Amino acid sequence: MKKKSKRFKGLLNQQKNEKINTLENKVDLIKKMSNAKFVESIDLSFKINLKKIKGADSNLRTIIELPNGNGKKFKVAVLCDENKLNDAKKSGAEVFGSEDLIQKITSGQINFDKLICTPSMMSKLGKLGKILGPKGLMPNPKLGTVSDDLVNAVLKIKNKIVEIKNDKDGNVGLSIGRKSFTTKKILENLNSVFENLKKDKATIFNSENIKGFYLSASMSPGLKFNFKEVQQ
């Protein structure tokens, strides 16, 4: 069994001594416990009971636009036609190109975190599925990474949109902010996640399939909460 560090044990004791009656209290405590030597992320995690859900409905994969972003920095690449290269350059993408970018990807030069593609170039990406797919980089219209509006697509991917998906065991984890965010901004992001998932994924995202949620920082213990606390 993995031993807990002295710092981690101290955080557990701090939890016991704090008054945490509301979700706001819990966010405040998570921020207070974020005492690592870097700006920790504030993370949300939960587990879907896959035994109660059958077929394709068990796959929770979607994107949500967080009103305050989550503070993560992504290096974005844009694949487009030659006539859209100026738009790609203006979009703020760190990497952009047309046939030349396809050649770089083919040779294994993948120096980006997200790939945005114009619809007209998607047919040329088919042969790169085995390279991009396993890395989670294959553009997908449902995930906001296939668009002709390159400026807006890059802006959202860099600053607003987060992807949510469960693993084979039903676990879901995502960052909803940074320690440097105000409690209000973290709660706004959290509420946005719940509102969107309840609306678009109601068959999965409900109290029958998910019994509890956890908030934590990168290096802190988690605090449990439930649907009712968010709905207050």
Give the SSE map.
Elements: H1 6-17, H2 23-33, E1 41-47, E2 61-65, E3 76-79, H3 85-90, E4 95-97, H4 99-106, E5 114-117, H5 129-132, H6 150-159, E6 161-165, E7 171-178, H7 183-200, E8 213-217, E9 223-225, H8 227-231
Helix pairs in contact: 2-7
Task: Provide the structure class.
Answer: alpha/beta
Specify the CATH architecture of the largest domain: 2-Layer Sandwich
Task: Provide the low-confidence segments as ranges.
Answer: none
- The number of distinct β-strands equals 9
The N- and C-terminal alpha carbons lie at a distance of 38 Å
Query: What's the tally of helices?
Result: 8
Order of the strands making up the biggest sheet: 7-1-8-9
Looking at the structure, the CATH topology of the largest domain is Ribulose 1,5 Bisphosphate Carboxylase/Oxygenase
Biggest sheet statistics: 4 strands, antiparallel
Please, what is the CATH homologous superfamily of the largest domain?
Ribosomal protein L1/L10, rRNA-binding domain
Order of helices and strands: HHEEEHEHEHHEEHEEH
Overall mean pLDDT stands at 88
Helix content: 25-40%
CATH class of the largest domain: Alpha Beta
